[in-house]
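Whether sequence alone determines local backbone shape is best considered at the level of individual chains. The sequence in question and its structure tokens are set out directly beneath this paragraph.

===
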Amino acid sequence: MYERTEFWTEGASLWLPPQGSTTAHEIDALFNFILWTSTVLTIGVAVGIVYLAWRYRRRSPADRPVPVKESKALELSWSIIPTLLVLVVFFWGFRAYVGTSIPPVDAYVVNVKGQKWFWTFEYPTGLNTDELVVPEGQPVKLVMTSQDVLHSFYVPEFRIKMDVLPNRYTYVWFNAPARGVYQIVCTEYCGTGHSNMGGHIRVVGRDEFYEFLRTGGGDAGADLPPAEYGEQLYTSKRCNTCHTVDGTSATGPSWLGIWGQPRPGSTSGVVDDNYIRESVLDPAAFIAPGFQPQMPSYEGQLDDRAIGAIAAYIRQINGAATPADLAPPGGAAPADTLGTADAPEGGAGDPSEPVGLDEAQQNE
């Protein structure tokens, strides 16, 4: 099973990464034809220039140029040969384009959404994930759109790349014959988090794929305490591209030091559970002073439990975590896990005085 962790990996070809799809060989063959043909022509032209410069150099001040008689054969050759090469590249490229653009009729369809700065995938069953899981040997058609700006979906091993546009659908397909994990990258600059806009395609056996669909991919945070699950979501949902947890400024406000802080003009008026929920589902409802409205909505991507976990993580890094935030599902947190050594005294950071919780939450 091949797992790609770097752009160039051991065992990859000199020019291209390993072939991971059934159409990659066609793209590679055309690439190599253009590469080596261009190399031969470049060397031929360079050698000709050097030879002619030496052969017809001026040997003395008395040398005078003489009329040159044209060569019909030479003129025809440098017109016909490049034309034939261009036609070969055109028809070969058109065949490869058609082959990679028109999916088979039995292709499995997955909807893809690009947004700042991550990818989400929706299956026909209604399942939404941030990792694309597909069965080996099965053609897969991706129907792609963008929620905000122009992105570009690129998988080097599959040799597929397609722009992803807002308010428009674009399509690409692939068939991965071998199991493995392959990296998705965005190749269209889409903002400050562009370099972090990655994802993975996991190719699995058919039985594992059916189990994945049946179980909904499994709940990655099912056995985690809410705060720990929120920390996991902070990375997997690319919250870290805009929000820091160390107090430094970024595209969005840092999560450190915000819990319980006033937000005049917002629905809650203070950073609490309701404020976090509104910020996740409708980020344009209130914009923190000094920041631009760049955050996309996570409506339909994060359920109530996930949003609650993010709020729990924010409470934890602010020293305001409750026992329920730190306890695994069905368990209880030890008393010495509450609060942190770096928690500020009193106010929003004092674990003895949870801020922003309603009465029912404080009694949990």
Observations:
- The chain has two domains: 1-51+73-218, 226-358.
- Confidence is low (pLDDT under 50) at residues 334-364.
- The first helix runs from residue 24 to 55.
